[in-house]
Design goal:
- Helices cover about 20% and strands about 30% of the residues.
- The chain has helices at about 20-25, 45-50, 75-80, 110-115, 235-245, 255-265, 270-279; strands at about 5-10, 15, 30-35, 55-60, 65-70, 90-95, 130-135, 135-140, 150-155, 160-165, 175, 180, 195-200, 205, 210-215, 220-230.
- Helix 1 (about 20-25) links the parallel strand 2 (about 15) and strand 3.
- Bound molecules: 2-oxoglutaric acid.
Length: about 280
């Protein structure tokens, strides 16, 4: 994935044993987490069919009219596994809250410990999603909704990530196109500092809240991921959510209400961070 940024650094890597809630609270860069032995190393299409059964998969079909499409798991897996699969077949944000998925798509304990979204029934399902991507898929520059951070573990395949600091989010917004500036179109400000990584099977990308990012997928990928918002990033999350509201792009969730509720059983320090973010 060619970049127009002139200051690109590799995403730092961290062994999974060093990943704690405190690490996530204090993240200032994306990280690639390595060496986590728990997830499966391989999931064949028939095993995916077994696990996903009657799951409905929502696919944002970029290559056929930028619309959401509803697929049954069986139909999707047949189309996605075909040798000539449409590169628009990219599932990255279909949530799997059911506890039975812990056996195949576990959530790292550090992510669960740090994630304020787990404490509210309106957002607890963001904890885990499935990733099924056809070769050639491309997700353009964006910031995850509600200022949440995102993580993605690959069981198989690889993805090329490029990320820019959350502090640049407003600068990278292109008011003319009403979208984030696209390096492919050459309209990304010169010299924007970024981090890049090729995420491989057995590795987990952690994208801190508010970071602008894009992802290219050269080969078929199977994995899982989720959204998280730790107390250390709650101010950034609220800032992004407020920006989404100004731009008319915020979803229907009242993040202030979710965080107030999540904070009600939290430590005084977390309550103070939430109160400061919402002021
Ligand atoms: O893997 C992809 O194509 C996109 C992933 C991503 O950017 C996200 O989940 O926010």
């Amino acid at each position: 994935m060619p970049t127009h940024a002139s200051h690109t650094s590799p995403v730092p890597r961290l062994d999974h044993q060093a990943l704690t809630a405190e690490t996530l609270d204090g993240l200032t860069t994306p990280i690639v987490v390595t060496g986590w032995p728990l997830p499966p190393r391989h999931l064949a299409t028939d095993a995916l069919q077994h696990w996903l059964r009657d799951q409905v998969l929502w696919v944002y079909a970029r290559n056929s009219g930028d619309t959401w499409q509803e697929w049954s798991a069986a139909d999707f897996l047949a189309a996605w596994a075909a040798p000539d699969a449409d590169p628009g077949l990219n599932v990255v944000d279909v949530y799997l809250p059911d506890g039975r998925f812990d056996a195949v798509f576990p959530v790292h304990p550090a992510l669960d410990a740090a994630n304020l979204l787990n404490a509210d029934p309106r957002t607890a399902h963001y904890r885990r999603s499935v990733v099924l991507t056809a070769p050639g898929a491309y997700t353009p520059m964006h910031v995850d909704s509600y200022g949440c951070g995102g993580w993605m573990y690959l069981i198989s395949g690889e993805k090329h990530w490029e990320l820019a600091d959350a502090a640049l989010g407003a600068d990278l917004w292109d008011a003319t196109t009403q979208d984030y500036a696209d390096p492919r179109a050459g309209n990304w400000p010169d010299g924007t500092p970024t981090w890049t990584a090729t995420l491989r099977a057995g590795e987990m990308m952690i994208c801190p809240p508010g970071f602008v990012h894009r992802v290219a997928t050269p080969v078929r990928c199977v994995g899982f991921g989720g959204a998280f918002l730790p107390a250390g990033h709650v101010a950034r999350g609220v800032e992004v959510w407020r920006r989404e509201q100004v731009l008319g792009q915020a979803g229907s969730l009242d993040l202030a209400d979710v965080l107030t509720h999540a904070g009600s059983n939290a430590t005084p320090a977390v309550q103070a961070a939430i109160a400061a973010a919402l002021r």
